[in-house]
Amino acid sequence: MYVKRNLGLLPVLRGTWKELAFFIIWSSLVFFLYYNLEWTFISLAIEPLSIIGIAVSFYLGFKNSQSYDRFWEARKLWGAIVNYSRTWGMQVLSFVKDAPEDQRILIYRHLAWINALRVQLRQPTSFSLDRSKSLKRHIEGYRAYGTIADIIQPLVSAGELANLKDRKNTATHLIKNQGLHLKELLQDGKINEFQNLMLQKVLEENYNFQGACERIKNTPFPRQYAYYGTIFAWIFVLLLPFGLLNAFDEEFLRLSHSGIIWLETAAILLSVLISWIFITIDRVAKNSEDPFEGRFNDVPMTAICKTIEIDLKDMLDEDPLPEKVAPINNILY
Q1: Which residues contact 39 (CB under 8 A, 6 or more apart)?
Q2: Given pLDDT bands bounded at 50, 70 and 90, which one contains residue 229?
Q3: What crossing angle do the helices spanning 46-95 and 301-315 adopt, rounded to 10°?
Q4: Element containing residue 307 per DSSP (H, E)
Q5: I want to staple 23 with a disulfide (CB 3.0 to 4.6 A). Which of 100, 171, 275, 288 is the partner?
Q6: Using one digit for the tens of pLDDT, what is the confidence trace for 279-297?
Q7: Over the stretch 149-163, which tens digit does the pLDDT of each residue have?
Q8: Which residues are within 8 A (CB) of 173 and not within 5 positions of it... i.e. 6 or more apart?
Q9: Is the peptide bond between 241 and the residue preceding it cis, with omega within 30 degrees of 0?
Q10: Is 325 within 8 Å of 31 (Cβ atoms)?
Q11: Domain extents for the chain?
Q12: pTM score, two decimals?
């Protein structure tokens, strides 16, 4: 998640420079053919093209709204995970008395669960947006990424880790192990029925949060909106220079040679600007479809997991506490 208030020019151009270069070349070619080679037959009326632009704008607006809803739901789910993690820590320390080792195991296993869930959600799917080379390099070099076994190894016992290695859904089995541990505590008289019920309710909510995250992860944004929105935007931007060709004819007739060159350049830049705006809006929607991939503006699950870890270890009175995850190039992962 980008944490600086303003994006700045470089991050914007880094994501759209290829399209921007294409628009400059394409618009320059169309204007050259019209004004220099006098291919006047390629001109289109601007009125019907404006109608297409309005229709595409509505379509892209809907696409952006629905894509943002997916991101915001994902962020709310992880906010709820933070709150219920603190609730879990408070209840474990309050209910499981005179058993510090059991308290530690229950809290550390919860830390293993949130980190296992984080890693599982960041696995690419068949419909995920392709990761750029820079993102792939970052993921490979960033220490907070890795296999589930590597990340949860300090948080669970060796026997439990060996049992979890071949599981298809490690996070699910970690919550299951929490429930089995609570059953043992109840049988040993370390907690009573009411306390067991309260703790089990938190585990149930954890399953609900995990299932909701997996629903977003495993359900692609409807292709009819994602794919056709991109097609419609590109149809519009490819036709746009042809609609702007005769928009400046009267001005061209009144200008000298140097003035014509300046106005032609301005017309090309106008075409490039409009095209860039439409494609960038589509790109924003596309990058918000899948909020767990670890990209520029996705949910910062690594930082959230570290925040939970700090809070729960602080409840255990551990010292020193881990450091918060710092942004890398203004991006919090």
Answers
A1: 33
A2: confident
A3: 20
A4: helix 301-315
A5: 275
A6: 988 888 888 888 888 777 8
A7: 888 989 999 999 999
A8: 163, 164, 167
A9: no
A10: no
A11: 9-315
A12: 0.85
